[in-house]
Design a protein that fits this description.
CATH topology of the largest domain: Rossmann fold
CATH superfamily of the largest domain: NAD(P)-binding Rossmann-like Domain
Number of helices: 21
Radius of gyration: 23 Å
Helix content: 40-55%
Bound molecules: D-mannonic acid
Distance between the termini: 62 Å
Number of strands: 11
Low-confidence stretches: none
Length: about 500
C-alpha cells in the first residue's frame, strides 16, 4: 500500500511528537525570508514551542526568494514537516506546526505578504550573500544584482533591501503597524548591518522614508546556532519511520540549539523563551563568540578537511592530527572573544568539539566550504586582526587562510575539479588565470579581492609570510603532509 503524504496531524501514526496545539487555530504574524533547512530547524521550532506554551497569532509565512521547491513541498503538506534530532544517544522526531502557506520565487506575492497588516515581524536567513550589503561601508552594494534591479524598479522589488523598503513604505502609507526586522544570519551585528543597508537603500529613493525607518523600525540583532546538514534520502526515510507518512520537507539537526536576541519588539513577539531563546541588551559579544569560535573553526576544518579527503566534520574530528588543529583554533579564537560574563569559554570550546564529533550528524565539509569570500572576513580575518594588534600568535588564522586559498584553486589533489559555490567564483577564476603558479602570486591575487581581507592585515609582513609559507607547503607536499607539519610545529 502506498504511504500517505503528511498533511494533517491526525495522519501521524509513528512515534514523532506532535504539536501541543492546533495549527489552524493560530493566524500568521511573521514573514520569514529564506526557507532553508536552517529556518526549519531553528526559528520555526522555537515558534512552535512558543505557540504551544503561550499561543498567539504567530505562525510563519515562509518565503523562498529564488526557488519554488521548498515551499511547494511544504504547501503540499499544509506546512507540516518532521524535525529529526540526531544525537550520539539516539534519534527523536517531532512534527512542527508553526509554518503556514509558503511562497516560492514570487516577489509580488512576497511583497503582498509583507504588507499584510497582521504581520508584525520579518525574520531572515538569506545567507551572507543574500543581503546585498557592502560590508566595508555598511550601505547597499549597488553592484549586487538584486540591489541594482530594485534601485531601477523600486515598486516591483525582488531582493531583500528592495522588498523590505517597499513593504515599510506601503505599511507606513496604509497606517499599519511598523515591522520589526530580525536578521538570523551569521553576520556580525546583523541587526545594525541590515538597518544600515535598508536605510541606505531607502535614502537613495526617498529621504523622508529613510528618516521614518531610522525612527520607527527596529532591527534587533540575534545570534543563532544549530548545526543543520542538508537533508538526504536517509532523512526522508527516517521521517517516514517516525511519522508513518511520506514527508518531502523533513530535515535533521543536532539536539543543541541556541538563540540570543535583543529584545526590541515594540509590536509584540512570540514567547520564544519557550524554545530556549535568551533575550539580552546587546548580542554583539555572543555573536563574536559564535562567529570566531564555532564558525571560524568550522571554516578552517572544512577547507583543510575537504582537501585531506574528509567528507564530513565528524571524520575530520576522527583524524587526530586535524582534531589537534581544531583544538588549537578554538583556544586561539577564545582569546579574541574577550570577557563574556557568565560564559566559560573553555567549556564552550569543549562543547563545540563534542558537537563537531557527533557521530549521528553527517555535516559535509563541502557544505561549509561554500561562500568562503562571504565568511572569512568575520570568521578568520576579524580575530586575526585582533590577534595582530595584540601581538598574539597568528598561526591558526594564517593556516585557515592558506587552506581557503588552496581550496580556491578549484581542484583537489587527485586533480578532480569542484565548483567553489562562491559569489566571487568568476572573479577568483579570472585572477588565478593571470597569476603565476606559486604561493606568493596566488596569495597576492586572491587576498586582494575587493572587500575581502582588511588591508591592515594583508600589508603586514608577518601575516604575509605566515600565509605564504603554509600555502607553499600545501602546494608542494599536499594537504595531509601540510596538516601534519602544522600540528608538529
Ligand atoms: C557553518 C554554519 O555552513 C557553515 O558555514 O559554519 O552553517 C554552522 O553550522 C551554523 O552556523 C551552526 O549554527
Amino acid at each position: 500500500m502506498a504511504v500517505q503524504r503528511l498533511s494533517a496531524l491526525c495522519d501521524v501514526t509513528g512515534p514523532a511528537r506532535r504539536p501541543a496545539y492546533e495549527p489552524a487555530d493560530h493566524g500568521t504574524g511573521i514573514v520569514h525570508l529564506g526557507l532553508g533547512a536552517f529556518h526549519r530547524a531553528h526559528q520555526a521550532v522555537a515558534t512552535d514551542d512558543a505557540l504551544a506554551a503561550h499561543g498567539g497569532n504567530w505562525r510563519i509565512v515562509p518565503v523562498s526568494l529564488r526557488s519554488r521547491e521548498a515551499s511547494e513541498a511544504l504547501n503540499a503538506q499544509n506546512g507540516l514537516y518532521t524535525l529529526i534530532e540526531r544525537g550520539p544517544g539516539g534519534i527523536s522526531g517531532r512534527v512542527v506546526g508553526a509554518i503556514s502557506h509558503g511562497i516560492g520565487a514570487d516577489p509580488a506575492a512576497t511583497l503582498k505578504a509583507l504588507r499584510d497588516p497582521a504581520i508584525r515581524i520579518v525574520t531572515l536567513t538569506v545567507t551572507e550573500k543574500g543581503y546585498g550589503i557592502d560590508r566595508a561601508t555598511h550601505g547597499p552594494d549597488w553592484n549586487h544584482d538584486a540591489v541594482a534591479a530594485d534601485r531601477k524598479a523600486p515598486d516591483a522589488p525582488v531582493g531583500v533591501l528592495g522588498l523590505l523598503t517597499a513593504a515599510i513604505k506601503a505599511r507606513r502609507d496604509a497606517g499599519s503597524v511598523p515591522l520589526t526586522i530580525l536578521s538570523c544570519d551569521n553576520l556580525p551585528e546583523n541587526g545594525a548591518l541590515l538597518r544600515a543597508g535598508v536605510v541606505g537603500f531607502a535614502r537613495a529613493l526617498d529621504e523622508d522614508l529613510a528618516r521614518f525607518i531610522e525612527s520607527e523600525i527596529t532591527f534587533p540583532s540575534s545570534m543563532v546556532d544549530r548545526i543543520t546538514p542538508a537533508a538526504t534520502a536517509q532523512t526522508l526515510a527516517e521521517a517516514e519511520r517516525l511519522t508513518g507518512c511520506t514527508d518531502l520537507a523533513a530535515i535533521e539537526t543536532e539536539p543543541f540549539t541556541q538563540w540570543v536576541i535583543e529584545d526590541r519588539f515594540p509590536n509584540g513577539r512570540p514567547y520564544w523563551e519557550a524554545g530556549g531563546a535568551i533575550f539580552v541588551e546587546n548580542v554583539a559579544p555572543y555573536e563574536r563568540m559564535k562567529l570566531t569560535m564555532l564558525n571560524g573553526t568550522h571554516s578552517m576544518l572544512a577547507y583543510a578537511g575537504f582537501l585531506s579527503g574528509h567528507a564530513y566534520v565528524r571524520d575530520v574530528m576522527g583524524d587526530p592530527v586535524l582534531a589537534a588543529l581544531v583544538e588549537r583554533h578554538l583556544k586561539a579564537a577564545a582569546l579574541e572573544v574577550g570577557d563574556l560574563p557568565g560564559i566559560d569559554l573553555s567549556a564552550y570550546a569543549g562543547d563545540l568539539a563534542e558537537r563537531f564529533r557527533n557521530p549521528a550528524i553527517a555535516h559535509a565539509t563541502y557544505q561549509i566550504a561554500m561562500d568562503g569570500t562571504e565568511k572569512l572576513p568575520q570568521r578568520i580575518f576579524a580575530p586575526a586582526l585582533c590577534a595582530l594588534r595584540a601581538g598574539r600568535d597568528l598561526s591558526t588564522y594564517a593556516f585557515a587562510t592558506a587552506a581557503w586559498t588552496r581550496y580556491a584553486l578549484g581542484t583537489d589533489e587527485a586533480g578532480n575539479a569542484y565548483s567553489l559555490r562562491d559569489p566571487k567564483e568568476n572573479l577568483i577564476v579570472a585572477r588565478l588565470a593571470d597569476a603565476e603558479r606559486n604561493a606568493g602570486s596566488i596569495m597576492t591575487a586572491l587576498l586582494a579581492l575587493p572587500g575581502f581581507a582588511p588591508q591592515e592585515l594583508t600589508v603586514d609582513p608577518n601575516w604575509r609570510a605566515a600565509v605564504e609559507s603554509r600555502l607553499a607547503a600545501m602546494l608542494t607536499h599536499g594537504m595531509t603532509e601540510a596538516v601534519r607539519r602544522e600540528a608538529a610545529a
